[in-house]
Task: inverse folding
């Protein structure tokens, strides 16, 4: 039997420290990340809301909305996929359904957070968090629902902004005791805070290197030095893609041609290489040849 996605994710964590995980908002981005040599990829809740639905990341998308993108990505890439489960979409039974759905759809891991259901971006003000006990219940529900023991359950805490470092670490210790495999420490503002988390917790710690937020953008070497085990780049490629598209749309509209933007584009041949287009075309030719042979 081949390795499950969860097992591949755990192997990637063991083989690469810290494990770099880029955000891939769709299946084609997953192929690009794979060609670049990454060992794991990520589907952001904000990416689903922003790119697939044109909405802000305010908890308005559903489990079903996310599953569509999980299935599309898992269908084309062998890279293990970490999925953003927000607050779990409801009570314990809803969380259990999410875990089972992600596993069935080809996901390798999820992270669930300790914000209230009406959540906000982790780098925005006025976040409201649930009690540690309620988050522990969420983790128990996720762990108990696993149909594949290798599937990775991450616990994200947004408590730093509200409760401070010491209390956040105490929460994470409870999350680990409840069965969380990895801790996702959100909106860290000082590299030394990562060191406090990693030095105090008996579990791998993930650092979120999202741009234009509260966390400084540290290098892999800097994060390794403070003990971080996984590094997330949730919307990096999407932000670059979006600005590039914005620029091209303005150029075509104002210039009446895309000519001056050609140098910025991926060529048709490179697109074909990523998609293995010619192999598909050869299959079609074989079928047509067979069909036309007397």
Result:
């Amino acid at each position: 039997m081949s390795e499950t996605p969860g097992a591949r994710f755990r192997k990637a964590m063991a083989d690469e420290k810290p494990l770099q995980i880029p955000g891939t908002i769709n299946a084609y981005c997953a192929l690009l990340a794979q060609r670049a040599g990454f060992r794991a990829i990520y589907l952001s809740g904000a990416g689903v809301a922003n790119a697939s639905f044109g909405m802000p990341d305010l908890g308005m998308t559903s489990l079903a909305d996310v599953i569509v993108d999980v299935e599309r990505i898992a269908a084309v890439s062998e890279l293990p996929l970490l999925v953003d489960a927000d607050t779990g979409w409801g009570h314990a039974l809803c969380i259990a359904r999410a875990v089972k759905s992600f596993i069935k759809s080809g996901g390798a891991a999820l992270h669930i957070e300790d914000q209230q259901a009406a959540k906000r971006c982790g780098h925005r003000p006025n976040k409201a968090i649930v009690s540690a006990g309620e988050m522990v219940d969420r983790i128990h529900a996720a762990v108990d629902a696993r149909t594949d023991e290798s599937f990775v359950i991450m616990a994200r805490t947004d408590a730093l902004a509200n409760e401070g470092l010491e209390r956040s670490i105490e929460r994470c210790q409870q999350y680990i005791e409840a069965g969380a495999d990895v801790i996702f420490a959100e909106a860290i503002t000082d590299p030394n805070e990562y060191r406090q988390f990693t030095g105090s917790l008996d579990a791998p710690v993930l650092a979120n290197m999202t741009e234009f937020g509260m966390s400084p953008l540290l290098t892999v070497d800097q994060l390794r030095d403070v003990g971080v085990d996984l590094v997330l780049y949730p919307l990096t490629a999407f932000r670059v893609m979006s600005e590039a598209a914005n620029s091209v749309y303005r150029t075509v509209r104002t210039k009446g041609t895309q000519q001056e933007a050609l140098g910025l584009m991926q060529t048709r041949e490179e697109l074909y290489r990523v998609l293995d287009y010619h192999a598909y075309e050869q299959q079609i030719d074989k079928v047509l040849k067979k069909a036309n042979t007397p």
